């Protein structure tokens, strides 16, 4: 049996405060060592803005691709039985278990101009490694399991009789997918999208090797924070981190509002 409400609530508040709230409060307090002028100079710095734009745009693009691909993979793993399905299911979790540095080295080896995949595109003048394209691929790699594992349990519990009833009533397979299946999967898809994007925005280990880290071109925000820390600019690093935090909170608020809207629409 779990303890009573007061004990459980006290433990929850204390744990969340120690693990989440106090570190975030320290992050929010550190940038103001140089006052508002120092924070504003970091906020308006072109290099910082370029890295933020690259990190958030590529993270959103990677999460969007994973949204569609992950749904298809979850559908195949749930609805079809074939030899090797368990092995394929285990491979989905590989980005979870693989150290991020190892993943970055492997991706860089594959997509460099002399790599197995990169050499196929090099004759056409397409460079993958050390460009935003390489960052996008790395973020797709680390974010895919979040979508698959968010959608897969919902699909497994989805009542197949509802689909059969829709087909019996004359709905086409496309109409059944759009009007019957997708509305039930929408909250899980949004959850997977938010988790994949949150992981992609803060990803460092698997991206750093393939990014190239060229300012204004392929420099991600986590790398810029590391650079400021190496320069002993702790207030500047905290300022960039605070900006990332604020943008992340805004995105999560929008996603949560969309989930609430879908929940109310489903109950209406």
Quick structural overview:
It contains 13 helices and no strands. It has helices at residues 5-29, 35-43, 46-79, 85-92, 94-97, 100-111, 118-121, 132-157, 160-168, 173-202, 205-211, 221-230, 234-267.
Give descriptors for this structure:
268 residues; ABC-type sulfate transporter activity; MetI-like fold; 13 helices; mainly alpha
Describe the protein's topology.
Elements (H helix, E strand, L loop, with lengths): L4 H25 L5 H9 L2 H34 L5 H8 L1 H4 L2 H12 L6 H4 L10 H26 L2 H9 L4 H30 L2 H7 L9 H10 L3 H34 L1
Subcellular location: Cell membrane
Membrane topology: Multi-pass membrane protein
InterPro entries: CysT_permease (IPR011865), MetI-like (IPR000515), MetI-like_sf (IPR035906), Sulph_transpt2 (IPR005667)
